[in-house]
Amino acid sequence: MRYILLATVLASGSVYAQSSMVGAGPGFVMPGQAAAAPAQAAAAQALRNFIATVDVGQALPPGFPLDVAAPAALKQARIGWGFAVHDVQPDSLRAGTPLARAAQETGQWRYAVMVLGKPVGLLTMEYAGKEWRLVSIGGAGISRDVQALVARYGNQRNVRLRYLRVPQATADFIEVSQGAAPARYAPLSAARESLGLRMRPDAGLLDAAELMPGLRQAATRNLNVMY
Description:
Elements: E1 5-6, E2 28-29, H1 38-52, E3 77-87, H2 90-95, H3 99-102, E4 104-115, E5 118-128, E6 131-138, H4 140-153, E7 159-166, E8 171-178, E9 184-187, H5 189-194, E10 206-207, H6 208-226
Parallel strand pairs: 1-6, 3-7
Antiparallel strand pairs: 2-3, 3-4, 4-5, 5-6, 7-8, 8-9, 9-10
Keywords: Signal
Signal peptide: 1-17
């Protein structure tokens, strides 16, 4: 059986206008919201199609992209919250563009796969031609990181959430904005490792000014390695 693996959460990006949850903003949706949106409906169908390829009578093979203990658990799998992917490019970092303004929609949405209320991975969807298509399945670690932030901030009024990544720095974040206050950022696991941040996932939020020097250094270092 052929599995589509999400080798790294920083591999690709996407966007489609969807209705938002209370407090989440247009780049983040929760279960039951925007249920008729094409990307979300396509993700639900893609999940059903994938589950149909799994033999529930057999053990899970090595490298299975969802974090479940046994195939039978997939009977409970549902699409949960989802988010648009926003990228920040190195030129914006070098120019000193504020992180919130530098982030640009990329054209993908990612949706959590939930089993009994817990995330077990992500589906990445991309619009191709005339329909939304599945790009990859995986990313259990990031789904748990984001779930913790959704639980903390997702239903607060006047709070907006966005997923941002800086591919050249191998770093990604959840941006949390409340009212007119400047946005603050929760670094996800890749960002904590890339930037050497010695903090727990639930340690709180950082200002953009605290992140920018490390992002510039990491992006420059990685680009130098590439070229």
